[in-house]
Design a protein that fits this description.
single chain, two-stranded antiparallel sheet, 3-stranded antiparallel β-sheet, 97 residues, disordered N terminus, 5 strands
């Protein structure tokens, strides 16, 4: 099934749901499994992620300006190939409390 109209293209079949050029207002995704999904050229400015599993996710060409991460498990997380735990350790050594 495919729908067109209002600047959006939605394709649904047995194995995937595809939105192109869509602008759904204030959408909520609750208890939705989006694992193995691809997000390309997507605007998530001002979005909130609460109790979200991102383990194994890859972010490339992402704008994290003014983003905030709190109460997160950062074990094994890397930024530009560097373990975040190593970055925090180095920061702590340079800026003891």
């Amino acid at each position: 099934m495919s729908e067109r109209g209002n600047g959006r293209d939605i394709t649904v079949n047995d194995s995937f749901l595809r939105h192109e050029n869509a602008r759904p207002p204030k959408s909520s995704f609750i208890a939705v499994d989006l694992s193995t999904s691809t997000f390309e050229d997507v605007n998530l400015r001002g979005a909130m992620f609460l109790d979200v599993a991102l383990s194994g996710a890859t972010f490339r060409k992402v704008d994290f300006a003014d983003a905030s991460i709190a109460e997160a498990n950062l074990e094994g997380m890397r930024i530009n190939g560097v373990l975040v735990s190593d970055l925090f350790r180095a920061y702590s050594q340079l800026n003891p409390r």
